Amino acid sequence: MSALMAAAPHLADSAPEPRAARRADTIATLRDVRRRVRRRRVLLVTALAVLVVALFLVRALLGDYRISFVDGIRMISGTTIPGASFIFMESTLPRAVMSVLAGAAFASAGAAYQSMLRNPLASPDVLGINLGASAAAVFAVVLLGWSGMPVTAVAFLGAVAVAVTIHGFAGRGGAATGRMILVGVGLAAVLSSVVHWVLLRADVYRAQDALVWLTGSLGSVTWSEIARLGAVVAVGVPLLTLVTGRLGVLALGDDLASGLGERAHRLRALVTTLVVLLTASATAVCGPIAFVGFLSGPIARRLAGGRTSIPAAALVGAAMVLAADYVSAYAVPGTAYPVGVVTGLAGAPVLIWLLVAQRRSTQETA
Amino acid sequence: MTATVPTTSGPATPGPTATGAADSARPADATTLSAESLSLAYDKRVVVEGLDLTVPSGRVTAIVGPNGCGKSTLLRGLSRLLPPASGRVLLDGQVIGDLPTKEVARRLGLLPQQPIVPEGITVAELVERGRHPHHGLFRQWSREDEDVVADALEATELVDLAGVAVDSLSGGQRQRAWIAMALAQRTPVLLLDEPTSFLDIAHQIDVLELVRDLNAREGTTVVMVLHDLAMAARYADHLVAMCEGEIVAQDAPAEIVTPEVIESVFGIAASVVTDPTTGDPVVIPHRRKRELT
Q1: Tell me: the pLDDT tens digits for A108-156?
Q2: A254, part of any domain
Q3: Which of A253, A334, B27, B200 is such that its CA lies 20 to 30 A from the CA of A68?
Q4: Do residue B116 and residue A365 have CB atoms under 8 angstroms apart?
């Protein structure tokens, strides 16, 4: 500021007091805007976190067999309660934890990709990245008889193969997002038939196993799978959050991002790696749960007033999977649907609402 | 302020010594930007070939020429967005492509022709993004950042709109917001690609006055692509006339804006008269006679 005053002495000499007062006003205005934005963000993340905790407790404690909160705590700390322990520790609690992890993984990956590619259609599930992981995993599990960590590795390779293919078709600079989406949608269809083909060729005795790879399911979750995905989410989501600010610069367009000293292609490669890692790890465990990555980002954006927020999106995704899994397990008595069926059914109307709302808001501003 | 612009300088050497001795408060160690036998191409299509240019430091330079002559391509080359097919661009004597990109971004600012407006963000947030090159991964927002952003908002008269979403602004306000962002970057060199396109005459003047103010206050070297020859003549110290990827002529506006140069660059016949109030050259294009054969 002092340098500026020195460079413009005629302004400083003529009216030093009003100028200083004006500067104080400007700073106050700026701080006010920053405070409002920050307050809204904190409020939103807190509200969503409360929602996720509430849904988590409902999912873990209020199944067919009701468990009190105190009993839940006692079982987690090691006490065995006959009858309750098996249901809680082997079914409802792991499913609740996995819902949070898978929801957060799919949603943060989706929101980051949509933000990076500046297109709400450009989420990993629409682009076939989930199905790339799914096809590779089902191949390894059903035809090769693998399990555990190698399946996650193969799923990751499948997701990488899809990501590389669609980015390759998009051409250098990655500007042709439209072409990328078309190729991705086509690849997703092909990979979906690959999954069907493998399942038809193999003797799949348990319908649950097949459902995992077709629509996504939390029916057979183990604690070791939770630990694996938990580690990826614990690293991946904070890293994605950290680069969101830089994605905000990328949102101004590649030229301006370069002008501001950001290496667009390097940032894109970093984000793509994280997105593929999160998506593949979640898919390797619970299959390509439909619409979570696609919907969480736009919902979080609307709640956050148009801004991309990875933590908000991750929480929206967690809430979505928790709610969908609860509904899928208990909505129709005696029948359990895979969670992906519910997210798919619930996702379609939300998608339509989003499209209509988006259209309306662009018309208003136009 | 355009009245004090020197009207004679050698066309072959438009360097700092030739044009820099005039009115603006230019620091002695001004950042220099130049191109040496620069060729630029998109894939195999060569747009600019073997071009030499030394941007006059501390001055406002306008690149003019017909559509498709390579004006914007040259600006992309100067700002390292388009790597040279051959030749080189030097920023402070160093090859620009070899410098760390953030280092370049602290010395050279760039406003592309049609930047993308991100959804939902306020004017204040947009302008704050201009501070990006000055921040590391973990550096906190500082009092200095706050002051620089306040400066930019005051200079562009956007303080009252600081909390308004950029996508709800009018075209003129939006352009001012982009310029405020570029100002917040605080670079000694600023490249602007058609900053006045899509603006009406009053808003064009607003933007160009802002550019002149910036140059006068901070001694910022400005290079802008303008398609309006009259505006370029009025607001620039130095004109670079391009045609088919080459520099046809470069000099002070009064030397460049002649019927002969206009004829050779734009392929139109025109008269040039002198503005009675400012002494600037004014272009009056003739109507083209239709040939009915």
Answers
A1: 999 999 988 888 888 898 899 999 999 998 888 888 888 778 888 898 8
A2: yes
A3: A334
A4: no
Query: In this predicted structure, what is the pLDDT of residue B137?
Result: 66
Count of residues for chain A?
A: 366
Q: Which residues on A lie below 8 Å from B133 (Cβ)?
A: 260-261
CA angle B135, B138, B141 (to 5 degrees): 55
Share of chain A above pLDDT 90, in %: 33
A53-65 average pLDDT score: 90
Evaluate if residue A203 carries a pLDDT over 50.
yes
Give the number of other CB atoms < 10 A from CB of residue B241. 26
**pLDDT, block means (10 residues), chain B with 293 residues:** 40 40 50 92 88 94 91 93 93 92 92 83 91 78 88 90 90 89 92 88 89 91 91 92 90 88 87 85 80 56
Cβ A36–B163 below 8 Å, yes or no? yes
In chain B, where are the structural domains located? 2-285
ipTM of this complex: 0.78
CATH topology of domain B2-285: Rossmann fold (3.40.50)
Kindly report the nearest CA distance between residue A245 and chain B, in angstroms.
9
Tell which phi-psi region holds residue A227, choosing left (phi > 0), alpha (psi between -120 and 50) or beta: alpha
**Which CATH number do you get for residue A233?**
1.10.3470.10
CA B84, CA B280: separation in Å to the nearest integer? 36
Tell me which residue range forms the domain holding A298. Answer: 99-365
Which of A1, A36, A99, A17 shows the shortest CA–CA distance to A328? A99
- Please write the tens of the pLDDT for every residue from A208-250: 666 777 788 887 788 989 999 999 999 999 999 988 777 778 8
A122 part of a folded domain: yes
The answer to whether position A70 is within a domain reads no
A119 in reach of chain B (CB within 8 A): no
Phi then psi dihedrals of residue B18, to 5 deg: -75, -35
Q: Give the span between the Cα atoms of A253 and B96, in whole angstroms.
A: 21
Chain A closest-CA separation from residue B26 CA (Å) = 10
Q: Which residue has the higher pLDDT, B39 or A251?
A: B39
Question: For residue B117, which amino acid is it?
Answer: V
- DSSP letter for each residue of B173-234: HHHHHHHHHHHHT--SEEEEESTTTT--HHHHHHHHHHHHHHHHHH--EEEEE-S-HHHHHH
The residues in B 237-276 lying below 8 A from A, measured between CB atoms, are: none
How many structural domains compose chain A?
Answer: 1
Condensed to tens digits (0 to 9), the pLDDT of residues A88-110 reads 888 899 999 999 999 999 999 99
Burial of B155 (C-beta count, 10 Å sphere; 0-12/13-18/19+):
buried
Pick from A4, A30, A36: CB nearest B149: A30
CA angle A214, A188, A117 (to 5 degrees): 125
Residue A25, chain B, CB below 8 Å: the answer is: yes
Residue A44 inside a domain? The answer is no
State whether residue B169 sits within 8 Å of chain A by CB. Answer: no
